[in-house]
Amino acid sequence: MRINHQLTGSMVALITPMFEDGSVDFDALELLVEFHIKSGTKAIVSMGTTGESATLNQKEHIEVMRKTIEFANQRIAIIAGTGANSTAEAIELTQAAKNIGASACLLVTPYYNKPTQEGLYQHYKLIAASVDIDQILYNVPGRTAVDLLPETVVRLAKIDNIIGVKDATGDLSVAQTLINSCPEDFLLYSGDDATAVEFILMGGHGGISVTANVVPEELSKAYEAAFNEDEGLAQKYNKPLIDLHQSLFIESNPIPIKWAMHKMGKCKRGIRLPLTQLSPQARTLLEQDLSNLGVI
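User: That's the sequence. What structure does it adopt?
Assistant: Structure tokens below.
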């Protein structure tokens, strides 16, 4: 069995804290790493979608991953976001992540250029062959305009260092197909906060979460209960978070989560164009949810 239990349960898709000029606030990043270690988060994804990977250049991207690994100091697994719409660039980022000591890499499907299923297979196969590090596929068709189909995931699951997939479709029928079709030791993660507990109860291994930025301890308990097949306890922990799961996507991620973390005093207001500050009308709803949870 190749299941790495360090990579099950609640994992956070970490924001990249920034000053108002858009530069990275590494002091705030260090505090966020400590926050998650103390709160029971099982792993941190650095430089995923929520980390604004699309607006950092490659040098910045690698530096944020490197500092996150440094701050963690082997106390928590760090999964590096190294996907790109160029296979060559994805290989470069994945090699860099290996060189700086990442626990694994998360590779989003190539976006915009809309490869075929065979193109997706060849893309991931070449990255896996090129860099000897555990790799997790990431399917989020709502953002990338390409859907990594379950049958392609099953083909890729036969490659030794492709260890899992993050499915952010939010479609539990897709989750069920993956659970039924993939090898038992292939890690299946939800990337959709609203359906993550149900995904794990069905047989998934954990979730890579935006909500975990705000309430890591509560979400960790919900996912742990679901992983242990205790549906009642999982739903008990998750129920108070349902409104937050929704409001954190009232505008494009990571706009709402960065505003939420700012309101909690965890980071400055910085976010990079073309993303903008959360609209005033959305702030009212989100801040009410944060207040109801007692985090502001």
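The chain has one domain: 5-238.
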